[in-house]
Known about the structure:
Blueprint: H1 2-8, H2 13-27, H3 37-41, H4 49-62, H5 71-80, H6 87-103, H7 108-117, H8 128-145
Helix pairs in contact: 2-4, 4-6, 6-8
Amino acid sequence: MQDIIAKLTAKNDEYACAIADKIISESKDTDEWYEYFDEFASLLNHPKSLVRNRVLHILAASAQWDDENRFDAIISDYLAHITDEKPITARQCIKALAQVGVAKPQYIPRILLCLHEADLSKYKDSMRPLIEKDMAETEKILIASDL
């Protein structure tokens, strides 16, 4: 497992991104990567935003296999990235939350509440409308899936 963590946090971002894409892609059809959920979750607060971006999507892809409700232990940390210090990571989190909510509908009310309460004032005027658009799209998906 240390090997996969090393690959996801490699200095070569292109390589690390390819590994993450493989995990995300395979997680659509199989739970093979779910056993590493806790290890992936340990990267949620990684100092490098590109690592956080990757792991947010990996965890979202794993949510559909989460019969053990491991997501319960990380949902607060996950939601904190709605207002990540890096606006790109915030956007990645918000987009991934649609997948989390569809897989784990019990989180939809909490996700929606966090989206509504998010303080976007720290982001530049050029980024804020993009984040708001992502929030609206995620909210639309979550509300539609919760009907």
